Amino acid sequence: MSSFRMTESALDPRQAAVDVTLPAGQGWTHPLGRGDVFRIVDLEGNQAVDTLFFNGRDVDERYSATETIRAQGNIYLTAGTRLMSSEGRPLLTITADTCGRHDTLGGACSAESNQVRYALDKKYMHNCRDSFLLALARHGHGMGKRDLPNNINFFMNVPVTPAGELTFADGVSAPGRYVEMRAEMEVLVLISNCPQLNNPCNAYNPTPVRLLIWSKG
Amino acid sequence: MTTNLNETLRGGQAWSRRLSRHQRLRLQDVQGRACVSALFYNARDPLERYNMPDTLKAQFTAFLTAGRVLYSDMGRILCSIVADDCGWHDTISGVGDGAAARARFGEGGYQALRNDFHRNGRENLLVELGKHGLGKRDVVSNVNFFVRVGVDETGAMAWTPGNSRPGASVELRFEMDTLVVLTNTPHPLDPSPQYQPPPVELSIEDGPPAPVDDRCRLSRPENGRGFALTEAFNEEMMGLR
Questions:
Q1: Which chain B positions have a beta carbon within 8 Å of A73's beta carbon?
Q2: B65 CB contacts (<8 Å, ≥6 apart)?
């Protein structure tokens, strides 16, 4: 997809304060300080990284897909996008992006939506909402299902046509592509590295991602 | 069918009510250019709520119209759209807040305007949700009835004029007991510089359940499975009564 704009980062992974690999099917929470830079690397390509952000000091303020796309007048996320909160404030700004397009309309998979979308007997399959719920249960502080508004799918391509069709296109990512963002306030990150096995967007092969944080210090 | 309610939702007004399964709610845009923003919850357990992405993904669409259904986050159908004069109802562009209303329409406070003050979607939803013990954590991506926001090849969003003409209506059939929360407040992308949300007529009627050959049930195999899950849930709830 050569029409997508690529914006690289000058940051050196050897200087990162956090550098972890999150396997497919795992959830993750982590705090960010204001000014910290957070990078997600699609190690093997076409992985979907379901992500939510909360104000670290008041988690009632959280990522809003509708505020984010309306603020920029465009449904796709890329470098320059301000990830807006439910209170209309920027939580983070995307500062680098070598993929070029990320989705925020497709939401997260769940046991129940898999039944609707694929077959009633798919309920047992692992899914993003289960990873979100377990990560929030471990995080504690009373967070749970009420704290799951619709999320970002980093590296996922969900085009909308002018006629209003929602399509699931081939991935636009590739091994080593990354997206990087700067926290504009204290932020809590919640990730599910998607385990979906019914959707061709990841070639039926969910893969690990690398998560890096550079501290503002 | 028995009519249970006829009510005018004035411009700027918020509203909520529990509807029983199989009841129908009709919204009519009397003057045209209305925007009624809506959220939906399981009436007994509001932890289950309207889910915009699941609604869109299951039906491969970015908007709502007759023949489509509104999914909860538990794979169930809250309501079906059984009739629609507009052809497009938005669910991707959210509601406006106080800051946006002040930037567009001026101060507009209660102190100067009394009950003509400029109420906004965000605050109206919080007030109405508060009556049910709900709040900020329960606000999710909503439906904007009578509004069309299109998306071009580059992803750019545009509010489309003329989507809802005077007298246009949309009718919902509830498939499970549902708490409906509405706010009749200007859409944040409507360029009108005046604060003048038009009145919307609401009517509720009892009606039959979706027949086996129902248009919404048959419009996609996904919806057939959604109806099956919803009907199984309704049986479960009957057992608890």
A1: 156-157
A2: B81, B84, B86, B87, B88, B89
